[in-house]
Design brief:
Number of helices: 24
Shape: globular
Number of strands: 22
Largest sheet: 11 strands, mixed
Strand content: 5-15%
Oligomer: single chain
């Protein structure tokens, strides 16, 4: 017993499984260290493949899976969608509603425990030269309680405050509090001048809270107080004004289908007979996911993000095939070593574990490289696909877990081919063979992996070609004006309580000041601006029972000053443009676009024809025809539009001018700040003006094609690089294995050109097979991305031929160096070499 106590604690023997695993890892580390070039190539390849996927997953996770920050039980929160039919637009689904329809759900729905509404918008913070623009959201008092969010400071507003005539109170976002007030702890009670009202700060939302949208506002204000001031006085009673979005929380035990059924019944029961021009007694209500990307109207960026993750997956497969080729080459070169170890008693399982240990160690190193790639590429992808979204860490726990899972999958995939060849069927043959013997036969697996790489690269390059072609088609469209040197300036003078005469006079005074700036060639006022605002009023044409309808709606009317068409760069096809003599006391005149001329007066001369517009009893005479111009979308092919002089539009529009169109002599961007300063200096009472180069107004519409072409080209180029490396590696290996054979051929009289052709043909055969398989894959994928393209067939033969030519050229370049080396084989040296 005493000896037992003196002996001390019993030392346990190490776990044999753990010990074996550590031995395998140490052996793998020493083995990889002996081949630093191969190890570096494999780590960089895996880092690019895993990192690209992790960066793309960060975007997809944000769009489709990650619950909104600080929202309690988000699975019970739904978006209320309405599907309705409205000629000529057809059937469509919107996650927007009118305030009366929101109130119906709020007051009568039993399947919903809470209903809230919100609407985004911009506010002018301050006046004059110190004014700035802030983003805001008009929300009902039920918005914050429905989401279950708690304020970081202060409180949220109540139902008593969210009513007409209620107190002007505001809740700040955490980010705006830090940016505007430097995180002052006594911010509560301070005031903000937002548009025409002064709002008292009563609370600060928690960090990262954005509601149910990806991008959060700077400030939240009560809807019933702010909407009549920032939009128009009767907006809360308007039956046909679709301007807000509705969310709801399902009651306990209620399904989305049950809530949708009750919502449909409530909607149909309260359809207005005459007040709502968009009313549809057959409309249906549905309850959609809180994630907008899963809703009925998927944003093009969301669609593109799904394809980006698929593209990144293809890049990862290419990377895995490349690493598998590298590891397989090592395994084949170590054939005699492996056979010797088997002869000495090593089991197949132990050999496979050691080979997998190498791929696992490479995957871990690749994960480290992937983290660096994610930290660099993540913000770039988010900026491209989620512009304006709230900032988030590029590598949070969810993204890291995804990266680690990818590294594990990569280790399994990359190590499969070497492990498959770990067994040696004939020990005697393997032990007696040279390093090159049998290598050619076993390179079949490597060739198959290479074919897969090139085929996937073909698909990626085809996608890039299709997006580039689409972007080229869109950029080549004639918009009906010259947008490159145009600036659009808007000032919301309604906030100051100005009436039409004051608005027009103020805009004219601003126009005169802007015209004095160097680099400004012309400026015009308008009501209704392309890609900003469109108006339609009642229109009667003598002798016509109705005006043919088109899917883009209309006819749309704009009121403009005489120099509008010259400023815009719109061509006058027939007749004349407006003149200074077309004033309030002169004959009412109008200018129509070509599409309206063809639809309303087919086969006739529209000049001299008359129209009744709005409530004006006097007829408007058509004096000119101008080229068609796009209004809402750059891809709209048919738009029905006409123009009236601003001086004669008092019976058509109750409001005054809404925008100032400015043409510059040179690039517009450098003059934006000058125009803003000139407008703000014109009056100390003006709210913050919106100043945008015209192309900026439709830049979001071009974003999917720009991003698609850039990212597909980037990943396609990466695939080309990896495929070229893989092809070079395979042919180099084949040449090294066939050195003796090539030496014999040359010794027997074969010309060096025939040896060069022999190796080149082998590379081109692999490429040809891959191109055929890749073309089949590209045709299948093309049908799936057809909705993202414009003006180009997903099976465009020119794109397919161009991609095939590029890959063939790359194959020739990658094959030439091994082929040239084969022609330099010395027959005597080759015959003596083992």
């Amino acid at each position: 017993m005493d000896a037992w106590w003196r002996s001390g604690p019993v030392r346990r023997s190490p776990d044999p499984i753990v010990d074996t695993l550590l031995q395998d890892l140490r052996f793998a580390a020493r083995s990889l260290a002996k081949s630093p070039g191969l190890t570096l190539a494999a780590v960089l390849t895996l880092g690019l493949g895993i990192g690209a996927n992790s960066a793309a997953f960060g975007v997809v996770d944000r769009l489709f899976f990650r619950p909104p920050a600080h929202v309690v039980d988000p699975d019970r929160v739904v978006r209320v969608n309405v599907t309705r039919t409205q000629p000529p637009f057809g059937t469509s689904t919107f996650s927007i509603a009118t305030f009366p329809r929101y109130a119906d759900l709020r007051d009568h729905a039993h399947t919903l425990s809470s209903v809230a509404a919100y609407a985004g918008g911009g506010f002018s913070l301050g006046r004059g030269t110190g004014a700035q623009r802030v983003t805001g959201e008009l929300v009902t008092a039920s918005f914050f309680p429905l989401l279950g969010v708690q304020p970081e400071r202060g409180r949220f507003f109540t139902a008593e405050e969210d009513r007409k005539g209620g107190e002007r109170v505001a809740v700040l976002s955490h980010e705006f509090w830090q940016r505007q007030f430097a995180g002052e702890p006594d911010v509560l009670g301070k005031t903000l001048q937002l548009n025409a009202g002064v709002y008292t700060i009563i609370g600060v939302a928690p960090r990262g809270f954005t509601g149910v949208e990806l991008s959060g506002p700077d400030v939240w204000v009560p809807m019933s107080v702010a909407a009549p001031e920032s939009r128009w006085p009767q907006v809360l009673e308007c039956e046909g004004c679709w301007w807000l979005q509705t969310i709801a929380r399902l009651a306990h035990g209620v399904t989305a289908a049950q809530a949708a059924s009750e919502g449909t019944a409530l909607y149909r029961a309260h359809v207005s007979d005459g007040g709502d021009r968009s009313a549809d007694s057959t409309a249906t209500v549905s309850m959609g996911s809180v994630h907008k990307a899963l809703g009925p109207n998927v944003d093009p960026a969301a669609k593109l993000s799904v394809w980006i993750i698929a593209v990144c997956g293809a890049v990862l497969l290419i990377a895995c095939a490349n690493v598998a080729n590298l590891l397989l080459a090592r395994a084949l070169q170590r054939r005699r070593e492996i056979a010797l170890r088997v002869a000495l008693g090593a089991g197949r399982g132990r050999l496979i574990r050691q080979l997998y240990a190498e791929s696992a160690l490479l995957a871990v190193l690749g994960l480290g490289a992937a983290i660096l790639v994610t930290l660099w590429a993540g913000p770039l992808l988010r900026a491209a696909l989620l512009p304006g979204a709230a900032t988030a860490a590029s590598l949070d726990p969810r993204v890291f877990a995804f990266s680690a899972a990818l590294a594990l999958a990569t280790a399994l995939l990359a190590g499969f081919a070497p492990a498959l060849h770990a067994g040696v069927p004939n020990l005697s043959s393997a032990l007696k063979s040279g390093a090159r013997e049998g290598g050619v036969a076993r390179s079949t697996t490597r060739t198959g992996l290479l074919v897969g790489q090139v085929a996937l690269t073909f698909v990626l390059l085809t996608g890039a070609g299709l997006f580039i072609s689409s972007l080229h088609k869109v950029l080549g469209l004639r918009l009906g004006f010259d947008p490159d040197r145009l600036i659009v300036a808007t000032v919301n003078l309604d906030l100051l309580g100005y009436k039409r005469p004051e608005i027009n006079a103020t805009y004219e005074r601003i126009r005169q000041r802007v015209l004095r700036l160097p680099g400004i060639t012309s400026a015009s006022l308008s009501i209704g601006t392309p890609f900003q605002t469109s108006y339609a009023v009642s229109l009667d044409v003598p002798g016509r029972d109705s005006i043919p309808s088109v899917k883009t709606g209309g006819p749309y009317v704009s009121a403009v000053t005489p120099d509008y068409f010259r400023t815009m760069g719109t061509a006058v096809r027939r007749g004349r443009a407006f003149a200074e003599s077309d004033n309030a006391g002169a004959q009412r005149v109008a200018v129509i676009n070509e599409t309206m001329a063809h639809l309303v007066w087919p086969g006739e001369d529209p000049l001299g024809k008359t129209m009744k517009i709005g409530k004006d009893p006097r007829p408007f005479e058509v004096v000119g025809v101008v080229e068609d111009a796009r209004r809402e979308a750059v891809t709209d092919e048919i738009v029905v539009q006409y123009f009236v002089p601003l001086a004669q539009s008092d019976s058509v529009f109750s409001d005054g001018a809404s925008s100032l169109i400015i043409r510059t002599a040179g690039p517009a961007e450098p003059l934006v700040d000058d125009v803003r300063r000139e407008i703000q200096a014109s009056s100390p009472d003006l709210p913050y003006p919106g100043i945008d180069p015209m192309p900026q107004l439709y830049a979001d519409q071009l974003q999917p094609w720009r991003v698609g072409s850039s990212l597909f080209a980037l990943f396609g180029g990466l695939g080309v690089l990896l495929a070229a490396i893989g092809l070079y590696g395979v042919l180099s290996y084949v040449v090294s294995q066939r050195t003796q054979e090539l030496g014999i051929r040359i010794a027997l009289g074969a010309g060096r050109s025939s040896v060069l052709g022999l190796v080149l043909r082998q590379g081109l055969q692999v490429t040809l097979i891959a191109v055929v398989l890749g073309a089949a894959g590209a045709l299948a994928a093309g049908r799936a991305i057809a909705s993202l393209l414009y003006g180009v067939s997903p099976h465009d033969p020119l794109v397919l031929l161009a991609v095939a030519a590029v890959l063939t050229l790359v194959a020739l370049v990658a094959s030439y160096l091994p082929a040239y080396r084969a022609t330099r084989v010395d027959p005597m040296v080759a015959l003596r070499t083992e």
